[in-house]
Amino acid sequence: MKELDTLLSLLAEKKRKMEQEEAERNMQILLDFLHCLRKQKVDELKEVQTDLQFIKEDIGAVEKHRMDLYRARDRYSVKLRMLDDSGGRKSWHSSMDKNSSGLASSPLNIRGGLSSGSHTKKNDGKSQISSHGHGIQRRDPISGSDSQYINQSGLALVRKKRVHTQFNDLQECYLQKRRQAADKPHGQQERDTNFISREGYSGGLDDFQSVLTTFTRYSRLRVIAEIRHGDIFHSANIVSSIEFDRDDDLFATAGVSRRIKVFDFSAVVNEPTDAHCPVVEMTTRSKLSCLSWNKYAKNQIASSDYEGIVTVWDVTTRKSLMEYEEHEKRAWSVDFSRTDPSMLVSGSDDCKVKVWCTNQEASVLNIDMKANICCVKYNPGSGNYIAVGSADHHIHYYDLRNISRPVHVFSGHKKAVSYVKFLSNDELASASTDSTLRLWDVKQNVPVRTFRGHANEKNFVGLTVSSEYIACGSETNEVFVYHKEISKPLTWHRFSSPDMDDAEDEAGSYFISAVCWKSDRPTILTANSQGTIKVLVLAA
């Protein structure tokens, strides 16, 4: 019994010790958690306080700038009123002088006596009324400005609603730009200080104001011209590519109809008719997948087709200058270099990227990849770099001076990458059949943003970019426009099918197949699988 009591006391002591250690561990874990949570919240608080300081500074800068604008407007209004009043007095005195001289010289007034006097008073009354009338007319510009102010107020209200609709994205954009500006090196901050002293804005605020202005400027797409040259009962109408030439004077279309059609843009927009005829038409042997105008030689355009042939055409003579037949399967994409007009690149289902020179019959470079190539694009700032979109879900960014391996492989898409386009030398946009667009920084080799809103699961629906906006098609027969800083659509436009009784039911069977911005204008060319081409313009 004594031995058992000893064992029991030892076990009890051990139990108490284990409970003590367990309690200490639990307390330590809890304490570590609370310390981590406090650190996180303190960091968040510091970030919020910093953000609040940024906001406070920017509110002060904007209020000051707004007051300066108001004062400038008031000064301008006073000057206009003074000029208006002095001009009104001169016109009133001159009219009175004319009336008095008329009274003195008119023999009818002398003979007319009282009746003519009363007639004169009536005339005076009329002249005074007309004079006051002129005064009212002089104030019309002010009342006009009032009505204009009302219109501007309504427009401002609409733009405010757009801001609140995308408030979270805009908030993230503002804070990101403001923090980036604050994190710049000292030398850069000094340059920004000069900017601040000149404008009253920080660099980050100025960048964000530019985003806010361009984002809220437009709310819809308006049709300004339309070409209906397709047969709705014939399936071979898909416009695979639509591209402006070097000067935006002409645009070309190509697709499964085996024809390259070149249209005069001004004629299409200014002549109100659906049946626009192309100024140039070239027939090809095979269905076409892509077009690319030469950025220097205005008369040259390249095409890729379903047989794998890459052709360079002379639009003036309507004949081919070069035909490259090295691809073994369908060629999906072709692109002329912006910096070297003699170089072009193509990509094919044979998993090969080929670089061509218009002075040579054979390819000058060949990149053998493991997956089908859906799209290729030269960097606009350098003829040494190309982006390649592939069926392996990745974007391969190559330096053509060393093709043994890509400079970087951008990953993120869940399906094949159907298009790649450069917004600038450092910004690359991509489209995929995973129903997303993505923006990448090819200088830092990082993803920037993902855009969602359109539907794209199996077709090539087009992609086009400007410096601020990205547009693409959708398998819902709609064109979507995104601002590059906001992940949700800015606006969209649905293609209708007025030739069909059950347009709503049939619209689902068509999709947007090609889009193209007009340089940095708010004008966009769009085409769909029915063969309809529309010229759309962004509107408020």
UniProtKB/TrEMBL annotation:
PROSITE patterns recorded: WD_REPEATS_1, WD_REPEATS_2, WD_REPEATS_REGION
Residue numbers spanned by region Disordered: 85-148, 178-197
Record key words, sorted: Coiled coil, Nucleus, Phytochrome signaling pathway, Repeat, Transferase, Ubl conjugation pathway, WD repeat
GN (gene name): 11420758
SUPFAM superfamilies (alphabetical): WD40 repeat-like (SSF50978)
Annotated Basic and acidic residues bias: 180-193
GO molecular function: identical protein binding; ubiquitin protein ligase activity
InterPro entries per UniProt: COP1 (IPR042755), WD40/YVTN_repeat-like_dom_sf (IPR015943), WD40_PAC1 (IPR020472), WD40_repeat_CS (IPR019775), WD40_repeat_dom_sf (IPR036322), WD40_rpt (IPR001680)
Protein name: E3 ubiquitin-protein ligase COP1
